[in-house]
Specification:
Number of helices: 16
Helix content: 25-40%
Distance between the termini: 61 Å
Oligomer: single chain
Number of strands: 19
Largest sheet: 9 strands, mixed
Strand content: 15-25%
């Protein structure tokens, strides 16, 4: 009897091992399904229009384990061994997922404004696969390792796309190299500062001395400093607009308070230190990035000249500056208030020229939402309403819709929204459909039109404040893949939020 028990024990152990194997494999598959609307880890995406670093091709992209494993052109497709599931997208565009380097998700502390769950669902629905979250508008602002940890904790299990973080350069830490290094060592991808009041109490403005010190520290880490480049020259003349006879409901009144000279003055000041980033300079390795350029005249020309001198400098603009013009903004429609402001129609045309000619490097949303009450939609006072365009879900179709008349190509869309933003954020395995890269992919139909109305599924928290409500757009997002997971398809999100936080190493 004892001998028989001894012989049966290995058989029972083997059976238990098999059962455990199939249980774990089933659990793994279940976990994958909850993170993805596609129950396959290994699959092919085919289309007649795939945007690659080598141009537009017809063919297939193989994804396995969240990584792009191969890219096959159409003429070689029939002879390719096709293990794995195949999804044929016909003539829809397969493009690298968009990377937004300038988004305010307001989490933690102001989730009534937006928040990681709603913001990243909106991003996924708009074809964005990576967001870099700004250090202000959340509470507290991200200016230390401790406040960064609050961000990371708030994001855990709440993000549908990958999210990285900028840290804040403020007067309290600018002259403290140890404090800045601690923040950078904690994982922020770079720093952000304001050259004018930010509107957030714990994120005060910096001067050029603060910025110079920040660049010297960033040089060691080879990470960028992002700057809101507006500088008040005559505070009294700007503030007088509230006290004189100008109508605060008129957009022209607000426009006068933030003239192009504010951007020009700030950039002139920045160029006194950006020269330090040149090869051989004291801040070589640092990089200066100017956010949301709206002045296409003198300010744009200054940046162009700095690049020609070898300064390590880039600049972004935003879809709202390329879509709207001051002349069309109605009295009291504070949905359009932002800083810098939306300028004239002729300025908009020049911004497009600068973007198409390569003088503007990339695009970002500057998604800056708030609660409807702070937009003063009923009052319509441009001088007192919160400034910021709520746009995250719509940046792909907006760029395409307004860019078509300028002859924008799919390759340019990928350059402005994926490749160059990935480079700025130091994400070498994102931003292009290339072998070995993360399978961060958007599939969209450029020919489908849709109306952004109350009937359209909008995932940002407070859609009523978006300037894009009521617009007709072209370019419908069909599917969004993040790290190989199908996180959005035809109006439906994956059951679980399985995006990852991105920390610099």
């Amino acid at each position: 009897m004892q001998y028989q028990q001894w012989r049966l024990s290995p058989l029972l152990a083997l059976l238990a091992a098999f059962l455990l194997f199939f249980y774990l494999r089933g659990s793994s598959k279940l976990s994958q399904t909850k993170c993805s609307l596609l129950p396959h880890n290994h699959y092919w995406l085919t289309s007649k229009r795939i945007v690659t670093p080598n141009g537009l091709i017809s063919g297939a992209v193989e994804v396995n384990g969240g990584i792009i494993r191969s890219i096959v052109e159409a003429e070689n497709w029939s002879g390719t061994s096709k293990t794995g599931h195949v999804i044929d997208y016909g003539e829809a565009v397969i493009m690298p997922g968009l990377i937004d380097v300038h988004a305010h998700l307001d989490d933690p502390g102001r989730v009534a404004w937006e928040g990681f769950p709603s913001g990243t669902q909106a991003a996924a629905a708009g074809g964005l696969t990576t967001l870099i979250d700004m250090p202000l508008n959340s509470c507290p602002s991200t200016v230390s390792p401790e406040t960064l940890k609050l961000k990371i904790d708030a994001a855990e299990k709440n993000i549908y796309v990958d999210v990285g973080f900028w840290g804040g350069l403020v007067p309290d830490n600018a002259f403290n190299a140890s404090a800045l290094e601690a923040l950078l060592n904690a994982g922020v991808l770079g720093l952000k500062s304001f050259m004018c009041p930010s509107g957030i109490n714990d994120f005060p403005m910096t001067n050029i001395s603060h910025i110079k010190e920040g660049l010297s520290v960033l040089a060691k880490y080879r990470r960028p400093l992002l700057v809101h480049a507006e500088m008040e020259q005559d505070v009294e003349s700007n503030s007088r607009s509230e006290d004189n006879n100008d109508d605060p409901r008129s957009y022209a009144t607000y426009l006068k308070t933030r003239p192009p000279s504010m951007e020009e003055a700030a950039v002139r000041e920045l160029l006194t230190v950006s020269k330090d980033t040149r090869t051989g300079g004291p801040a070589e390795g640092a990089h200066l990035h100017i956010v949301h350029l709206s002045d296409a005249d003198a300010t744009s020309q200054l940046i162009k000249e700095a690049k020609s001198y070898g300064d390590s400098i880039t600049v972004e603009t935003c879809p709202h500056y390329l879509a709207f013009s001051a002349e069309e903004i109605q009295d009291g429609d504070t949905r359009f208030k932002c800083a810098p402001p939306i300028r004239s129609s002729s300025n908009k045309g020049k911004l497009w020229d600068a973007l198409l000619e390569g003088h503007i490097d990339m695009l970002s949303s500057d998604h800056s939402p708030t609660e409807p009450e702070l937009k003063l939609l009923n009052d319509g006072n441009f001088l007192r309403a919160w400034g910021g365009i709520s746009s995250l879900q719509f940046v792909l179709p907006v760029t395409w819709s307004y860019g078509r008349k300028y002859g924008v190509t799919f390759e340019q869309m990928a350059l402005w929204w994926s490749e160059r933003p990935a480079r700025l954020a130091g994400q070498n395995l994102k931003g292009s459909i290339a072998i070995g890269n993360h399978a961060d992919i958007v599939v969209w139909n450029p020919d489908v039109e849709f109306d952004v109305t109350e009937d359209h599924p909008v995932y940002i928290k407070n859609p009523s404040i978006s300037a894009y409500m009521g617009r007709k757009l072209s370019g419908k997002v069909l599917a969004t893949f993040v790290g190989g997971n199908l996180v959005f398809e035809e109006g439906k999100h994956a059951p679980n939020a399985c995006g990852t936080t991105i920390l610099a190493k």
